[in-house]
């Protein structure tokens, strides 16, 4: 029920975080207090994902590496470029621009694997893309972020090195550790598969709710209505542009229709929870994490709608 209605739980949890101070002004604010726990939460999520990663999916990465790495390259090339272009097209700068660049540079989200299954796409190819992009993120994300942000000098070299280190510690090592543990200890693997989805989804929901709680003044502020409208417009443009780039790239690579659907959802749906966590680690302003948090709503909503449409249209091989 949690996975099937994830968008509903996302709206409810973030709504409570948004209005907590208005509804309970005298009570302890758990969302603001959770800011120091965000790195631990994303580490737990990645560890659980590693535990749930089937052995065969890892083998698939090596068996069809040209298609997997081609799709990953498309993601790390197109999404940062789209974020950069649409941020300027909508007239955004400063913290909002940096947040948009983070959205474009992080790897794909695991939710794309579920939606690919619902869309009658190639789920195995989707998982292979997510796995590869995640494992390459310590090198790929700082490079993409540095190139995209170079003209504005929004991010310095020290922050890029910290980005690589944070991704290595909170993403790659937990994923590998979880996968190795499940292969070594069968009993642990069975329990992880049963309980892992709940743990991972609750952690992601709390991460996004925390970012919303930290940014509630900007979200509810009247004076920020114009930049917020521009931010929403830029995020929607990035999301839809990612879907178009994914499907067009699949056509250029001559992928069959199920794999095109997988690539489309993988590129358009970014790991915004990871982006929000990186924003709180690398920047002092909470406004940077706002774009990744909002993007979670957008990509989950549009991805669900797209998967529903495709589920009604069997792919033609």
Ordered list of secondary-structure elements with their pairings:
Elements: H1 6-23, H2 30-33, H3 38-52, H4 55-63, H5 65-89, H6 94-105, H7 111-118, H8 123-149, H9 157-184, H10 186-214, H11 216-220, H12 225-252, H13 257-268, H14 272-282, H15 290-311
Summarize it.
The protein has 317 residues and is mostly helical.
How can the largest sheet be summarized? none
Q: Provide the CATH top-level class.
A: Mainly Alpha
Count of separate DSSP helical elements: 15
- The tally of domains stands at 1
Rg measurement, Å: 19 Å
First-to-last CA distance: 32 Å
Compute the number of strand runs.
0
CATH topology term: Na+/H+ antiporter like fold
User: Structural class of the helix and strand makeup?
Assistant: mainly alpha
What would the average pLDDT be, to the nearest integer?
Answer: 82
State the helicity in percent bands. Answer: over 70%
Instruction: Estimate the strand proportion.
Output: under 5%
Uncertain spans, ≥5 residues at pLDDT below 50?
none
The best one-word shape is globular
Architecture per CATH nomenclature, i.e. the level-2 architecture: Up-down Bundle
Order of secondary-structure elements: HHHHHHHHHHHHHHH
């Amino acid at each position: 029920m949690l996975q099937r209605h994830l968008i509903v739980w996302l709206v409810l949890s973030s709504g409570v975080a948004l209005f907590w101070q208005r509804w309970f002004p005298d009570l302890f604010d758990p969302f603001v207090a959770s800011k120091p726990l965000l790195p631990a939460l994303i580490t737990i999520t990645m560890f659980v994902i590693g535990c749930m990663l089937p052995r065969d999916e890892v083998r698939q990465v090596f068996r069809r590496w040209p298609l997997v790495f081609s799709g990953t390259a498309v993601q790390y090339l197109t999404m940062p470029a789209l974020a950069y272009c649409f941020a300027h097209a909508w007239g955004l700068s400063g913290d909002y621009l940096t947040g948009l660049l983070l959205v474009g540079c992080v790897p794909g989200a695991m939710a794309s694997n579920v939606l690919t299954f619902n869309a009658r796409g190639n789920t195995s190819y989707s998982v292979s893309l997510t796995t590869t992009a995640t494992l390459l993120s310590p090198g790929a994300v700082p490079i993409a972020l540095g190139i995209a942000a170079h003209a504005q000098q929004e991010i310095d070299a020290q922050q890029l090195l910290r980005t690589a280190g944070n991704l290595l510690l909170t993403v790659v090592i937990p994923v590998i550790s979880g996968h190795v543990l499940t292969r070594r200890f069968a009993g642990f693997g069975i329990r992880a598969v049963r309980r892992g989805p709940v743990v991972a989804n609750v952690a992601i929901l709390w991460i996004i709710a925390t970012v919303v709680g930290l940014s509630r003044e900007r979200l509810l502020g009247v004076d920020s209505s114009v930049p917020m409208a521009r931010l929403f417009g830029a995020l929607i443009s990035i999301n839809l542009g990612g879907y178009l780039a994914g499907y067009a790239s699949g056509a250029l690579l001559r992928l069959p229709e199920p794999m095109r659907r997988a690539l489309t959802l993988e590129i358009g749906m970014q790991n915004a929870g990871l982006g929000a966590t990186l924003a709180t680690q690398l920047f002092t302003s909470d406004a940077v994490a706002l774009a990744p948090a909002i993007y979670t709503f957008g990509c989950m909503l549009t991805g669900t709608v797209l998967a529903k449409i495709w589920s009604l249209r069997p792919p033609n091989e």
